[in-house]
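User: I'm writing a tutorial on reading structure tokens. Could you give me a worked example: one chain, its sequence, then its tokens, then a sentence or two explaining what the tokens reveal?
Assistant: Sure. Here is the example chain.
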Amino acid sequence: MRNHIRTVVLLGSLSALVLGLGALVAPGYLYVFGALALAMNLGAYFFSDRIVLRMHGAREVSPSEAPDLHQMVRELSREAGIPKPRVCLMPEDQPNAFATGRNPKHGVVAVTEGLVRVLDRRELRAVIAHELAHIKNRDILVSSIAAAAASLITYVAQMLTFSSIFGGSDEEENSGQGAGAIVVALVAPIAATLIQLGISRSREYLADETGARLCGDPEALASALLKLQAAPASEDGAGVTTPTPATASLFIVNPMRSVSSVAGLFSTHPATERRVMRLRALAAEGRRNGARTSPGRPMASATSF
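And here are its predicted structure tokens:
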């Protein structure tokens, strides 16, 4: 129920933002922006997973292409009590992963080629468990919509800026639109960031805990997070599959991470060190309770963080 409310609020905020941009730049065409907002809402709800997968060049791989990957997903999905998601591979060297889809029935787990190369089998299994936890916890719809919405907002802002600079011949009208375009250029990235920050960082903590319980190996997930954090961050212009700030919140670790403490205040992810500390505390608690924490074995019940 909570995720349904968050979805409605997110889509409503998207509509308000698009209409606000329209009122600022072209107040005489609000009906056009109303139609655009409606189309964006429908597209974000039904096609947000396809949008983000296409943005990152992800392609679905068959069991014959990636048998070990499919086996991990199959076993962990059964443990989580959800349908087996589709499995996609991204042609990206940076090790990372995300889950998307509007519900568990339409779930997708996407991993980069770098992830498969860098992690050992235990760590890879733990990362997949983390992504399946997002599907099990039903927060993938909100995350996917937020990522798609942030991308669309950025695109609309660029389109409005371009049209205000090069469109029309009325000098006074163009002057007003030009001023509006400057405001849009400043506001749109901030709005996209706020949409991402609207997704609570606690979802990553919850996915860490749920994923650790699914794979029975919190130490492996902690080790994987440290390896992913140590990998070089993606940079703009590195390729068509390079993550963008609009979709950064989808990934298990922020692909656009910055060492700046100021930037950390606007990060969509909690600090990796904090996540590792909590996972190791969970592992220690499991050992105290006599839990079997070997790979593939469920942990004994433990108190929540």
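What the tokens reveal: The CA atoms of residues 234 and 242 lie 6 Å apart. The first strand starts at residue 59 and ends at 60.
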